[in-house]
Write the structure tokens for this entry.
Amino acid sequence: MGFLFEIPRCRIPPVPWFDGARHGEAWRRGGRLEAADTLLTLSEVSLGLAGFAGIVVVFGRGRGELAPADSFRLLALVGCSLGTLFLSLIPIALGFVGVSEPALWQWSSAILIAVLVPGHLFALSRMRRDAAEIIEVLPVYLLPFGALLFLANLAAQACNALGVGWSPSFGVYLFGLLLYLLFAAIQFARMLFVRPRVS
């Protein structure tokens, strides 16, 4: 005895960025779809961090201006969070205008470098200006490790952008975004639990 009714099958219309016929077997396996989902998740997390930073500032500050250390940490947190948000959406935008792999990840890594280097130079200039106050709230023992991660990320993104050493891939670009998000999360946690002596 058969079923009284049959659930109709629906076909999801193709989206230009996820058209397997245009971009080969890797696309048909869903790799690009998974990359887009991952990037959108990162953008949501980074936006949430930036929003929570605003709440911490509004409810956690006293009268007057922020202390230099808190100002630096807030700037670093918001900069890294919004930077991750922007950089997470870049490959999606490039995909919709017709850039296909591997050029998609080459352009994405090149844009990440263009954001990464000026941002870190600006942070270093702020650290030099208010070094005494900022050192109070930064984990000094982690600074060499952070510098090493920055240089490794810069080298990896440069290789990804130039196609040197390996075929340009989403994984290398994702690694760079995760480092940005990790730094923002560390700053957020330390803003909650580590306060400067003079505020």
